[in-house]
Amino acid sequence: MITRFAPSPTGPLHLGHAFSAITAHDAAKAADGRFLLRIEDTDTTRARPEWEAQIYDDLTWLGLSWEEPVLRQSDNVPAYEAALAGLPTFACTCNRADIRAALSAPQENYGPDGLIYPGTCRNAGHPTQGAAVRLDMSAAVTALPKELQWFKDDTAQSYSSMRLIAEVGDIVLARRDTGIAAYHLAVVVDDAAQGITDVVRGADLEDATVIHVALQHLLALPTPRYHHHRLIRDDAGKRLAKRDDARAISKYRADGATPEDIRALVGL
Ligand code: GLU
Ligand code: ZN
């Protein structure tokens, strides 16, 4: 078993991250497997080297170890470009407001990747320079098996690929602002590059799994097994935000907590 923890260095690691990292780490160790780390820093507008350094420091303090070298997504851009070149795509110049305006009922048009794209630029032939690159989902579906299949824990899952058109739509594969691969493309390319057999991540990403399985088929990459753990909530029952400084591991450390205290706090 090969698992990974894939944080984005855009803020402090908080209790939710610690839970996710420990869960993936312990699953690999229990199976005599390997635990890998990946730094998801393709959002160059928000990723900072200080946060990356803090991630290593906090994980080490928690007692976790991982194999070197760590895969940093900003170092792997050519792999995303190669993957992108093999997919049916189009350039999109829409901003959020354009997309909302083109949808008759935006509140009813949410999929696992947010607003379902209304198709405005699909046949516009925009140059990719300064534009987002989207997957042409209708074209993609013709290259997919009728049923997408994968395992969630030990249970077989199945999803009719036709549903992707209405329920997911033309997702962004390369961002307009940075020109770099968006999350879904990078995660699929990297899970394969790192040989991940078991993706262990939060229940908040469960709905995105069908996107990842579809991309794996289109790119002829293997589909790992997926596990989704519960989310850590604050005292008010709210899910911890990406930047929840009050729950930052560094804050607990500064207050004298031990790694055992952190495990207990997240129910491990
Ligand atoms: N980088 C993502 C995050 O921090 C995790 C991606 C994943 O586990 O697939 O939310
Ligand atoms: Zn567009």
Primary descriptors:
Rossmann fold; 268 residues; 10 helices; binds glutamic acid; 2 domains; 12 strands; 3-stranded antiparallel β-sheet; binds zinc ion; 3-stranded parallel β-sheet; alpha/beta
Summarize the model shown.
The chain is α/β, with parallel strands linked by helices.
Show the helix and strand layout:
Layout lengths: L1 E4 L9 H16 L3 E6 L9 H13 L9 E2 L4 H9 L3 E4 L3 H7 L7 E2 L2 E2 L16 E4 L1 H5 L5 E6 L2 E6 L2 H5 L4 E3 L8 H11 L4 E5 L6 H10 L6 E5 L19 H6 L4 H7 L3
Parallel strand pairs: 1-2, 2-3, 11-12
Antiparallel strand pairs: 4-7, 5-6, 7-10, 8-9
Bound molecules: glutamic acid and zinc ion.
Based on secondary structure, the structural category is: alpha/beta
Could you tell me which ligands this complex binds, including any ions or cofactors?
glutamic acid, zinc ion
Do you know the CATH architecture of the largest domain? 3-Layer(aba) Sandwich
- The assembly state of the depicted protein chains is single chain
Strand order of the largest sheet: 1-2-3
Main beta-sheet annotation: 3 strands, parallel
Indicate the CATH class of the largest domain. Alpha Beta
Helix share, percent: 25-40%
Termini, distance in Å?
21 Å
Q: CATH H-level name of the largest domain... which superfamily?
A: HUPs
Mean pLDDT: 95
- The ordered H/E elements are EHEHEHEHEEEHEEHEHEHEHH
Choose one word for the global shape.
Answer: globular
Strand tally is: 12
What's the number of structural domains? 2
CATH fold name of the largest domain: Rossmann fold
Relative strand content:
15-25%
